[in-house]
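Model the whole thing, not chain by chain.
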Amino acid sequence: MIQVLGQRAQHALAFLGDFTIFSAQTLGWLLRRRPAPHTLLPSFYTVGVRSVPVVGLTGMFIGMVLAVQMYYQSSRMGVGSRMGGILNVNIVRELGPVLAAVMLAGRVGSAMAAEMGTMRITEQVDALSCLGTHPLHYLVVPRLLACTLLVPLLTIFADFMGVMGGAYLGTRYYGIEPHFYWYHTANFVGLWDLASGLIKSVFFGAAIGLISCHRGLNSQAGAEGVGRAATEAFVASFVVILILDFFLGLFLINIYHAPLARQPRFS
Amino acid sequence: MSQATATTGDLPGLIGLERASVAFHSQRVLRDITLWVPRGQTLVIVGESGCGKTVLLKLLVRLLAPTSGRVLFDGQDLALLRERELSQQRLRFGFLFQGAALFDSMTIFDNVAFGLRARGKISEDEIRSRVRQHLQEVGLPAEVESKKPAQLSGGMKKRVGLARALATSPEVMLYDEPTTGLDPIMSDVINELILLIRRRYPVTSIVVTHDMNTVRKVADRVVMLYPLSRLRPEEAQVLYDGPPGDMEAHADPRVQQFVAGKAGADWLNSA
């Protein structure tokens, strides 16, 4: 029993060490040599352009779902007309960044892991090395850059669609006067709320890129191995996104309030 | 460091393994292999599946690192090279992978041009003419250039893989099971190509195979490896090292069995 636990702990530590070395080496390549444009463009296209519809749709429905709940809860407290503020702050701080990142982990992360896993087991990764190209430089850096730079942009789009979805339901369906809806939103949602969501999304993007590439490059042989790499990439990214969300959320709230000695605003 | 920069003149060959062993976790694959390949030789490494032939080939370009022992190329210990130096050394090798390992997101042209582009300092015009030349050399028409690997047959993929490996003008060609999965005629075409390449370029070749036709056709020297799991601890893993002609008359029944391609009486226990 103790032996099994010890082995598990040893495996976990070895895995963590391996991932840390992988991340540090990727960062080293990122700083050492600029990736070629022809490797960047396909990654940016796959991660960015092709994710727009699904991220937009997710954002819009999150806004509308949240509006239903918010209106119901806030009208019970008699502040139904103020729901715009609380709804939108939730979207830009939490739900927009987290759901956009989770959608991308599912859409892009597992596909990247499967692609790189297939390349590994068909020896294409070895072939890259033999032709004088480092796989981290050629395969991982462009994908990491695409995820880190584009997840925040997609988050802005998800936020926008969420805000619009919520506003549509709030003002059209529940009949809140648009003036009040937007007035309370403008009072309640600050630039920092938007910024903290976007700062988090940068980390989410980097996590998706690194985890998915690492899982793919360490894929086991066979269709089962590649399938498992793809699933693990998504599950691990999802869990890490939630853990990062918690700690970054705590950290960002603290640095906002602590040094400037501000109080949370309740307008 | 003095060992790493020793000249080839002091060493028995261009490429060498010195007491190299490889283990994956607790499974040992290669044990204490010492092997030197002189410049210009065509060495064929044979042995049944799982005896560590491909692992040995990958040690030579440091796609795998030995658990113990050294791998030397042109007087340099590969373990002591920095990443950039290693990349440059690897360009002196051409590697034909078992499944050809063509980049399936690229066209055939881009596949063959890949190594040249990675080197840099070569104009697109020159790349174009060299890709044409090497595709022609392996007997492929210019029309395949724009195709994707998935559109080609197994034999054509192997030949594209060969053209890609040749494009960087390597000093050493490594072939991993070049005829596996091909029909007898295409297998012979690949064997002929190995011979043609050796005639045309001053390459050292190492071929890993279990095809005795390849051995008879291309080998200057044959090395036979045996799976560690079926060896006694005191036995050497290299069962045979010599010219191809002497293999059949070798005293070790395991060598004779491999040459004859017979299952033998104890196959149920050993398989």
